[in-house]
Write a structure and sequence with these properties.
- With 757 residues, the chain is α+β, with helices and mostly antiparallel strands.
- Helices cover 33% and strands 20% of the residues.
- The protein has 21 helices and 28 strands.
- Helix 4 crosses helix 5, helix 4 packs across helix 6 and helix 8 crosses helix 9.
């Protein structure tokens, strides 16, 4: 008896094992290998853009969660006991057999959702008994191996909804232009009945049948207490809708960029949809004005400085039809003068200048390079901060020459501008600061955001807070030339540090805006590189910048002053530099600690004057009482332009008639050429060496100057001292003497191809 029981028990265990082995054997669903759309969502999960799957189907990646209304609709219509059966519904199966027997044909399949998943994974759609058995066994295995929630999400993501629309999310957007969570009961019921016969029940045909099935499901939901009577009545009255919308196309270039980085599937970005949409509208609004001037492309990127997140990626104008697919955020374009703040910060960080240190702003000729300011004027001498706020070109060429082109190039490259990767002196030269290099809006905006983040000590690096602070302060005071040629500050209700830039030939317009919260980068131009006169940093990119600032939530707070990296010390009141003994007028200012190593002011000189201060004198030529006073000490060319811009300047008096010979040496100065400069002078079409124009400045307006080249008399000039000279390659000396006997000379070399004999 005991033996019989043990044998029976063993066979029972064997039977149980034989039943469970198939259930435990891992099941592979081929539908999991179906290609998905690449989908980009914003930081809150709102759809921004989607790209159709490689098999031509609108099939979104596996949905993360399902609306309760869809669960109620799909289970009520397809599988009422879904949450209770083990994958196969025996009750529904028995009922289906009875209905099919009475009808003499298959009228009901009793397929559960797991069984339909098995059918979706097969290559055939026949409804034979053999197929049903295979589906049923597979459904049991699915239900045993996976939880109900996962299987329902799998079904919702792979069920056919008609045409090339697969899955609930794609169907919601294609048929109702909304995500599933924002569908009404009537809309959700409409979608729920589609997978049952997607080829027969469609929006574009059989609408009456579709409406009938939708209303049937709504009434069933009411009967099952899923919706109340009012919801039922309102849902039955709701129109069916037209169906078939284009999917959102809010950030198409972001999607393409992420795909190039091999990021696919469903991508949750840091984009803020409402900001992205509003910037698209801003670009379209400006394009309506630009297009008549053949300006067709623009881009905007916005970074949250607190964490480095890109919250807006508008890489082209949505309304444009010219090169609309080009991502102008990633395109390399000429930088114009948008790099000036980075040089200014670098100069302070290296201890080469104080914020207001005087910089030369005079006509320059450097190895054939002749930089000019945007307005065509010069200031003689100007503070570095003011030069930045006015975006003057010449002072920054002077600063770059002092800092070192290659040294600055390396600083830019290390800061994140990876496209500036050629030799500084051999490739870019001094034009680097005026647009001689190409940058992308993406990297440029990130570099400036990194600077801003240095101030909050969150994630910025590579810059000192004091150098960044002084740079941002100068950028807060950015000025622009008015129609009258005067300089005026750009008014805005927001506290903002900003900078614009325009590349050579008006091909690229830039603007950068910085607040404690955000960094905004803007580019305007033509993707094909065509220049237009109206492509100007202030009027195009700057206008977009301030429109973007207005839509962002920006408070009035500003960056805290980094006093721990600064010193409150004396500077020369005029030059802003560390005071020398000649600087008698001083002020107290906060400067970066690094600036304590910057040069001492050399723009002042203590000179001797008579008691009345009318004449400049010295002991060798004047016997009465002599006083010592400090005056600005400038070269003739500096003085010429400085005096134009500072008419109320107290100037050093002229030399006393008895001492005039003492001042001969500083009356004249060559503007061009520079001492020992190499001048490349090409041949013209006739094989003749072209002439060059040399220039000199004289402090006396009535002076007459006589010109000699290599001891050969060239002529004389009055008031404006220029001479056109021609000579062959080699070393030459230009010698000038004025009507008082004052002399000045400069040596230079002409280089170029030799003439043919």
């Amino acid at each position: 008896m005991i033996l019989t029981f043990n044998v029976t028990y063993k066979w029972l265990l064997v039977g149980i094992v034989l039943i469970f082995i198939p259930l435990l054997w891992p099941i592979q669903l081929s539908l999991l290998n179906d290609p998905y759309c690449t989908v980009v969502e914003d930081h809150e999960g709102h759809l921004l853009s989607a790209q159709i799957a490689t098999d031509g189907q609108w099939r979104f990646p596996l949905i993360d969660s399902l609306p309760a209304s869809f669960i109620d609709c799909i289970t009520s219509y397809e599988d009422a006991r879904y949450f209770y059966h083990p994958g196969v519904d025996i009750i529904s199966g028995i009922r289906a057999l009875q209905q099919n027997y009475k009808a003499g044909r298959v009228v009901s399949g009793a397929s559960t959702i797991p069984m339909q998943l098995m059918r979706m994974s097969s290559d055939h759609n026949d409804r034979s008994l053999r197929s049903k058995i295979i589906e049923s066994v597979g459904a049991l295995r699915l239900d045993f191996q996976y939880d109900k929630d996962y299987l329902l999400r799998l079904y919702a993501s792979h069920a056919p909804f008609g045409g090339n629309v697969v899955g609930l999310e794609a169907a919601a957007w294609k048929y109702f232009n909304r995500d599933p969570y924002n569908l009404s009961w009537a809309e959700m019921a409409t979608l729920a009945v589609l997978p049952n016969a997607p080829s027969l029940i469609r929006f574009d045909k059989s609408r009456d049948r579709l409406l009938e099935k939708r209303n049937f499901l709504l009434k069933k939901l009411h009967a099952d207490n899923k919706i109340d009577k009012i919801e039922l009545e309102l849902s039955l009255e709701e129109p069916l809708g037209s169906g078939w919308y284009e999917l959102p196309h809010i950030a198409p270039h972001l999607l393409e960029w992420l795909k190039k980085k091999e990021i696919k599937g469903k991508i949750i970005s840091n984009i803020h949809k409402e900001v992205q949409v509003q910037i698209n509208q801003i670009l379209n609004r400006h394009y309506a004005k630009w297009s008549s001037n053949s300006i067709h492309n623009a881009a905007v990127m916005v970074i949250d400085n607190s964490n480095g997140d890109i919250i807006a990626y508008n890489a082209n104008i949505p309304a444009t039809t010219e090169e609309e697919h080009v991502d102008m955020i990633q395109a390399e374009r000429s930088s114009g003068s948008i790099l000036k703040p980075l040089l200014y910060a670098s100069m302070i960080e290296e201890g080469l200048i104080t914020p207001r240190a005087y910089v030369q702003d005079i006509p320059l000729f450097i190895d054939g390079f002749r930089p000019t300011n945007y307005d065509g004027n010069f200031k003689g001498l100007i503070g570095a901060a003011e030069a930045l706020s006015r975006s003057l070109n010449v002072p920054f060429v002077v600063l770059l020459r002092e800092f070192g082109v290659e040294k600055f190039r390396k600083k830019l490259f290390q800061s994140g501008l990876s496209s500036i990767d050629q030799s500084g002196s051999g490739y870019y030269g001094l034009s680097l600061i005026l647009g001689g290099a190409e940058v992308t809006l993406y990297e440029l905006t990130k570099v400036y955001s990194n600077m801003a983040s240095t101030m909050t000590q969150s994630y910025g690096q590579g810059w000192s807070r004091s150098s960044v602070f002084h740079t941002l302060e100068a950028m807060r005071k950015l000025q622009r030339p008015s129609l009258r040629g005067e300089w005026e500050q750009y008014s805005s209700s927001r506290v903002l540090a900003w900078k614009t830039g325009t590349s050579f030939g008006h091909r690229d317009a830039w603007s950068i805006g910085i607040t404690p919260q955000y960094t905004i980068g803007v580019w305007v131009g033509n993707a094909d590189g065509e220049g237009r006169e109206d492509i100007i940093g202030v009027s195009t990119a700057g206008a977009v910048l301030f429109d973007v600032v207005d839509i962002l939530e920006i408070d009035d707070a500003w960056f805290e002053t980094p006093y721990d990296e600064m010193l409150f010390t004396e500077v020369c009141a005029s030059s802003g530099m560390l005071p020398s003994i000649q600087c008698t007028d001083k002020s107290q200012e906060w400067i970066a600690k690094s600036s304590i190593e910057s040069p001492v002011c050399h723009f002042h000189e203590i000179i001797q004057v008579d008691k009345a201060g009318k004449w400049r004198v010295n002991n060798s030529c004047y016997e009465d009482e002599i006083l010592s006073k400090s005056f600005l000490n400038m070269t003739p060319i500096q003085a010429k332009y400085y005096n134009i811009n500072n008419p109320n300047l107290v100037k050093a008096p002229p030399w006393h008639p008895d001492c005039i010979s003492e001042g001969y040496n500083d009356l004249m100065e060559f503007i061009y050429p520079n001492p020992n400069e190499k001048l490349y002078v090409p041949l013209d079409f006739n094989g003749r060496r072209q002439n060059i124009v040399v220039e000199l400045i004289h402090k006396r307006n009535d002076a007459k100057v006589y010109w000699y080249l290599d001891e050969h008399f060239m002529g004389s000039t009055s008031t404006f001292h220029k001479q056109s000279i021609g000579h062959d390659i080699g070393y030459h000396t230009l010698y000038c003497i004025d009507d008082t006997g004052t002399e000045k000379s400069v040596s230079f070399e002409i280089i170029g191809e030799r003439k043919n004999n």
